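Researcher: I'd like a structural prediction for the single chain below. Treat it as a standalone chain; there are no partners to consider.
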Amino acid sequence: MQKLLAYIEGIGAIGPGINNWKEGQAVLCGDVEYHPQKTVYPAVSALPPTERRRTGKVVKLALSVGLEAVADAGQTANDLPAIFASSGGDTYNCHAIFETLASDDRSISPTRFHNSVANAPAGYWGIATGSMAPSTVVCDFDASFGAGLLESLAQVAVDNRRCVYISYDIDYPEPLNSARTISDGFGVGFVLAPQQSASSLYALELTLTQEKASSCTSQILEALRLGSPAARVLPMLQVVAGNETARVVLDYLDTSRISLTLTPCR
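Model: Treating it as a single chain, here is the predicted structure.
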């Protein structure tokens, strides 16, 4: 395939023991010893109170990392196309729906239903930001991060405009966890631009390869990478955190993976 090029202008991240990209950067470049703890899902103050009460973990995670990336880039979210990628969406809400369907009273509340669909975070994003820009939702099991990144860079190339890419996954409650185990919540957001500017942090060149995916430099981070589809981004984030020039290979499909050449702009 033809190479795709974009420039990272802003980053957001939340995961186990990582409350924002600044903390994540310190961990990933080795300045701070990593002590994973349960992921904290911040309330989204940009949402009106009624919508804020209705949101679960997945919406809090997606919106938080997306808004952090937009702020880091010095952009406003209301005119940025948004791409969302998740392997499972709101897993706790789906669990609650399954419990209801297995009970004597099968009545599903409208709030439960609208939070169960894959594009629920995109809808809440529009409410929080006032954005009328297009949104795209990608779901591709363990390949979700790679599929969303490929979609994002394709949109940047074709439309010649910035976008925000948001990838996120949360754990499942039992008994779903036994069938589909995700270690904990992890989310990452990027503002991507078609041209280099004063805001550019990294140049990102993407192509496909059949090479084996890169692993993380520490055993504990490698466990996180393998434990969450969204965390497949970690080898890329380690390079960015260390301000290095490098090439990494990220998981995508069984027979095709994503090759990224990363070059710092500063």
